[in-house]
Design brief:
The protein has about 450 residues and is of the alpha/beta class. The protein is built from 13 helices and 16 strands.
């Protein structure tokens, strides 16, 4: 089982490295949306450019789930003549379906790429990447489109695939690379601990980072031109265990933010990585770390042991304050889900020296016994459609200090996967931290 798409991408990259691609002119192509985080890690590890490959299925008018062809960028159209004849689709019906799908393909392409042109595949090796292959229909269409766009070689790569999909893919591609072919195979998401939907905002951010050639880090800034002064994987001793983290410090830093992840999440959380990249670009250092070891994550009692998580967060904060890059900087906490409760609990301790807190879809109610002792100004961010969590945050706001605030993002659900909502979270968090952590706020 893969922890998340980042973990899967890094493991898949290791397998691709063993395929001796270093002497080939490779372009890595992610299938939006879930395939892009996997492809980003592959491109990073191979040191090759990243792009997306846009594919839209052409469904039979009266049975849309049945494919009669597929389209791609550059005017590419691939038709299944047998399906067209059996379904007796007329030229006018085909044109109507293609026109509708072409408009949607171009809309998504403009959104993801903004003003960037598609990378040419002519004469190059295209490595098409998805987060998993179930039926293989999308993968086959993407490989055919890559070939039609001029790729000399086409490699299909995915962390997990069904055995039934591989036979047809091997007839289309020059090579199929995968890590697991489980039996029985029901759905791709079964093989991930965290298979949260990838948002449009995350796809855009990853493509921007890849286009700018930023360093290999989950939390490198997606905005700003200066490379970070420090960008390292770290290990922090907490009691008898060592916790993994990622520490990023911009060239000019105006505060440090520690991320406390929620239940079942880790420093690889794509949503927190996206927020961290925004903070880095605005001059804030970030430390993303795992509150629990992999063995501890399966124990639900430890996942919800808020005082224990808070104690670990306090220890990690002491480590951060001792780093040369952090000396003299003000500290903030960014918490999600149960991580928000841990952040508030840690901030309530008498020895805490925390200057600002942001909670994203958090459970501050789990820290209710100590909320009145939290002196740091706190911003609670909740999705408007996350109704139960919104009620819990409204209850928790009362004991917090007067300058604390609850902000509701209309239309957002718990994971902020709706278009633009995660960007709004990142913007609100950055503004809050800059206000309370900058030198001027001392």
């Amino acid at each position: 089982m893969f922890r998340d798409r980042v973990d899967a991408g890094r493991r898949l990259a290791g397998e691709l490295k063993r395929r001796h691609l270093e002497n080939e002119d490779v372009v890595v192509l992610g299938l939006p949306r879930g395939g892009v985080p996997v492809a980003f890690e592959v491109a990073l590890a191979l040191g090759r450019p990243l792009d997306i490959i846009m594919v839209r299925k052409l469904g039979v008018p009266f049975q849309p789930e049945l494919a009669m062809g597929a389209i791609g960028e550059g005017g590419v159209r691939i038709l299944n003549r047998e399906a067209l004849q059996l379904a007796r689709v007329t030229g006018a019906e085909l044109a109507e379906v293609e026109g509708r799908e072409r408009a949607e393909l171009e809309r998504r392409s403009r959104r993801y790429r903004t003003d960037r042109l598609a990378i040419s595949l002519v004469g190059r090796t295209a490595v098409v990447v998805d987060d998993g292959i179930a039926t293989g229909s999308t993968a086959r269409a993407a490989c055919r489109v890559a070939r039609a766009l001029g790729a000399a070689r086409v490699i299909m790569a995915a962390p997990v695939a069904s055995r039934s999909s591989l036979a047809e893919l091997t007839e289309i591609c020059d090579q199929v690379v995968y890590l697991e072919v489980p039996e029985p195979f029901y759905a791709v998401g079964e093989w991930y601990r965290d298979f949260s939907p990838t948002s449009d905002a995350e796809v855009e951010a990853l493509l921007q980072r890849a286009a700018r050639g930023l360093a290999a880090s989950p939390s490198v800034a997606s905005v700003g031109d200066d490379p970070p002064a420090r960008d390292d994987e770290v290990e922090i001793q907490v009691g008898t265990i060592r916790l993994a983290g990622h520490f990023t410090v911009p060239e000019v830093v105006c505060g440090m933010v520690v991320f406390a992840h929620g239940s079942g999440s880790s420093r690889h959380s794509p949503r927190n990585r996206f927020v961290a990249s925004t903070l880095n670009g605005d001059g804030l250092g970030t430390l993303l770390f795992d509150l629990l070891s992999p063995d501890e994550e399966i124990d639900r009692a430890q996942v919800f042991d808020i005082p224990m998580l808070a104690a670990r967060l306090t220890t990690v904060t002491k480590w951060l304050k001792a780093q040369p890059e952090s000396i003299g900087s003000k500290i903030g906490y960014f918490g999600a889900s149960t991580g928000a409760a841990a952040a508030l609990w840690a901030a309530a301790q008498p020895s805490a020296n925390v200057d600002a807190i942001v909670s994203r879809g958090g459970r501050p109610d789990l820290a209710l016994p100590v909320l009145a002792q939290v002196s740091a100004p706190t911003l609670l961010i909740v999705g408007g459609h996350d109704e139960e969590v919104l009620k819990l945050n409204q209850k928790a706001l009362g004991p917090l200090r007067p300058e604390s605030r609850l902000t509701v993002i209309p239309g957002a659900t718990h994971l902020f996967e709706e278009p633009g909502t995660l960007k709004e979270v990142a913007s609100l968090a950055s503004e809050w931290f800059l206000r309370h952590l900058s030198i001027q706020s001392r």
